[in-house]
Amino acid sequence: MDFTIRKQAWDTLFADPELGAGNFLFKALHAYGAIEEDFLFLEQPYIGPSGRAYQAFSLASLHRQVMSLAGWYRRQGIERGRHVCLYLGDGIPSFLHFLALGSLGCIPVLINGHLRADIAALYAQRNRFDVFVFDQQTDARWDLAGALKGLTALNAGFIEGAPAEVSALPASDWPVARHDDDIIMVCHSSGTTGIPKAVLFGHAQFFNGKRERLRSFVEQDGDTLATAMPPTHAAGISYLMTATMLQLPTLALTTQTGPVAANLIASFRPSIVTAFSQSYASFAGQNLPDGYFASVRRFYNTGDTAHEAHIRQLLRLAPQARFTDMFGASELGMSQFLKVSSRGDVASKRTVGHAASYAVCDILSPQGDLMPDGQPGYFGVRSPTVTPGYFGQPHLTALTTLNGYWLTGDVGLRLENGEFVHLDRIVDTVQSNLGVQAYTLLLEEHLLTLPGVFDVTVVGVPRGPTREEAVLILAQPQAGASLDAKTVLQHALQCYPFRGRDALPDYTVCVALLSPNGELPAGSTGKVLKRLIRDQFWTWQRDYDEGDREMLAGLVWNQQLPTPPQAAAVSQGLLDYLHG
């Protein structure tokens, strides 16, 4: 599409005060007209209830498919106001069903199709979401016949005898009008600490902050996007929303990690890539040649911050790119912190940058007081983008606010220059036997600077009947690398809180090297489940002691080092380490 025509449409679209997350497709159709030029390209074809396959969508064909799905839902008896769980296959289906249900005034409840079926069903039942939509992919993955008892289950896959297309829905009641306070979507948290929480998203709330970013997202005529963010996540919906409103040529990936995803991106030659940190870690570990992503000028990461070592590798693969790390969470609606790295200037040591223009961010004490710069505390956010709360859980919503701030669940500090440092998730900090907390993310960042380490996970594990925990480091060597546990341990001892201590008590820190077949437990989003590691570690230790190397190839505790590392005169404080 001609760039001038697109810019004229943007002026019309972004000036519309009613534009929001619940009606952007129809507002875009009004601004651009029913254009047939494809903009949304799919890694895998979409086949809906009619059996028709789509490899790409234009704005007009996207509108027609949404209308077709909306008609299908009406034939199933789904009416306005109904919460409908979407437990669909990878890729574009969740986005299409989100649009269709929203057009009817229903509330789509997006569930990651890799979340175990029994947990997905329990999540639906606990929240009294009684309609559960699945397709062939999730049915084949989980064999859903026995998992959905008590739920109204609808198969959204190809149905024999279904009409090829649905006639136009009456304009008098479709699509429904949307208002600022309407809840337009429910997404779940990652579930790394148990049954996921149901996070609410509003028509205006989920769009706050986006209008300003949209105006500057396209930097040059010819920009194209490849997104590996799953549309079962709010960020995945957000970037597909961006692509639709900007009519930005976009490759929607089904595969998020591994050589297939890397090759698809390189072949599409996008100027912009959006993904979660797991995708970037995967690309960084594939030993791809310099300039493999030569077309890329911008990487965007959101959710968990990416590791410095992985960012450096990405910028080697795309030397003219900048990497924008946007720290956030589902509950925050939009990322609240921004930092930008380029090949010659990579942000380091867990820095997440400054607060976004629409947000007020501070570090709080447990009582809600503002912590002075340099002192660790809880991240608190005041922002128009923050979720209205958790569905059906007003007490949990209230407990997640403190002195008018929304608590993100993270520990960090602010530096004197106004930059924020993310140290850890609150639930993952380690109550060490050194009298101070150990921060697992800070240690992971440090350990990834050691040559031969591909990935690392740090967890606090019980060390006896007391409340103190030992620091467990689980390192995955790079393919073909020669790495031993003692070398990793020596490197770890140069990081806070160990650095500068003459000696450590026995069972303070342990390093274990994963075997080639050793896999850590992970959730539906690919995040490592640290709570399960805590429960399983001492079984792995016993297996290792008995000669079993299926899980762990090497293991050493700090007391097993032949000589203590050379120490400074005094232990090094946290700020000293961060500034070092």
Report on the architecture of this protein:
The longest helix is centred in the first third of the chain and has 17 residues, at 59-75. With 580 residues, the protein is an alpha/beta fold. 28% of the residues lie in helices and 24% in strands. The protein is built from 16 helices and 26 strands.
Structural class: alpha/beta
In terms of per-residue confidence, which ranges show pLDDT below 50 for 5 or more consecutive residues? Answer: 565-570
In whole angstroms, the N-to-C terminal distance is 51 Å
Number of distinct beta strands: 26
State the helix count: 16
Structure in a nutshell:
By secondary structure, this protein is α/β, with parallel strands linked by helices. The protein contains 16 helices and 26 strands.
Topology:
Layout: H1 3-14, H2 24-32, E1 38-47, E2 53-58, H3 59-75, E3 83-87, H4 93-103, E4 107-110, H5 117-126, E5 131-134, H6 136-142, E6 152-155, E7 183-188, E8 198-202, H7 210-217, E9 225-227, H8 234-246, E10 250-252, H9 258-268, E11 272-275, H10 277-284, E12 298-303, H11 308-317, E13 322-327, E14 337-342, E15 351-355, E16 360-364, E17 377-382, H12 394-399, E18 401-402, E19 405-414, E20 420-425, E21 430-431, E22 437-438, H13 440-447, E23 453-462, E24 469-477, H14 485-492, E25 509-514, H15 530-545, E26 552-557, H16 574-579
Parallel strand pairs: 1-10, 3-4, 3-5, 4-7, 5-6, 9-10, 9-11, 11-12, 12-13, 24-25
Antiparallel strand pairs: 1-2, 7-8, 13-14, 14-15, 15-20, 16-17, 17-19, 18-19, 19-20, 21-22, 23-24, 25-26
Helix pairs in contact: 1-2, 2-8, 3-4, 10-11
